[in-house]
Amino acid sequence: MVRLLLCGCAGKMGAAVRSFVNEREDCQITAGVDIFGGDLEFPVYKNIAEVTESVDVVVDFSHPSALFPILDYCRAHPGTAAVLCTTGYTPEQTEEVKSAAQELPVFYSRNMSLGINLLMELAKKAEAVLGVDFDVEIVEAHHNQKIDAPSGTALMLADAVNEVRGNNMKYTYDRHSQRKKRERSQLGIHSIRGGTIVGEHQVIFAGRHEVISLSHSAQSKELFAAGAVNAAVFMAGRKAGLYDMSHLIEDKKD
To answer: 203: which of 16, 40, 140, 170 lies 20 to 30 Å off by Cα?
Structure first.
């Protein structure tokens, strides 16, 4: 039985994770952390440093500011893995995740959906075939409560395409102040915020005579909860290193 510490346990994603874990027999939530507290079926702390229960994996759906305390907790409890599901990390925080993975087992994905990670692979294959003759634009849409833009997933998709292009593309987030033609090296990223949209992502390859569009639409938050719990079970007992959805997908193939 994999013992989980759920950060952000009282939030919407925390509720989705709790519901999904209740349907599983291979894991349980031993304790939770939430700055707002909560009356739940397990002990809830406002500070991760106060947690006394033994856990195998920390699952984080809280806030980017919680990153360093979570990593410190894992360092103080050898063998504890971290599954980082929060988006909106700064470049410095992302580098800290990579650095921490040299001594800790860390699973980090800017989107926990299997479908999104398939979309990323398809986008990479499309870029490899289409190349510089096609302009690339990414459009993402989320609910009106999401505070970061563009989404971490949009940046993940952009990075995947850019890697195929030799990391020579320049990300463009705003064109209203530009009075010039689109440069070949540009990769446009556009954000929509409204209503209760769970998450939609579209990668557009626009050529001279045709347009190819790859898209993914999340229908519920349970999608991400399932991915996070699957990742947590996968990470239990792993050695230090940086893991992502590609490792989980490969594990499912075996």
So the answer is: 16
